[in-house]
Design a protein that fits this description.
This protein has one helix at residues 36-39, and strands at residues 2-7, 15-24, 29-33, 46-54, 59-68. It is mainly β and 75 residues long. The longest helix is centred in the middle third of the chain and has 4 residues, at 36-39.
């Protein structure tokens, strides 16, 4: 399984966001999604994310980096 979390800094205790993660084993594609209702409530603008994969015992990092939340309005 996979998990993705966003925090203010890599070592912060508070989780700002969590994503639903799907792994397509056939293609190797990993997709992380957060629904619009959840993101509409975000007040944070920047943070750092990590994406990990685990088999229940071992945890391996897949990706990490900067995260940004921005409000997009439609007209």
């Amino acid at each position: 399984t996979c998990a993705m979390q966003v925090r203010a800094t890599p070592d912060a205790d508070v989780v700002l966001a969590e994503a639903d993660v799907i792994i397509d084993v056939a293609t190797g594609l990993v997709t992380a999604t957060i629904d619009a209702v959840t993101t509409a409530g975000y007040t944070w603008l920047t943070g750092t994310y990590d994406l990990i994969i685990t088999d229940g015992t071992d945890v391996d990092p897949l990706a990490e980096g900067d995260a940004r939340s921005r409000r997009i309005t439609t007209r």
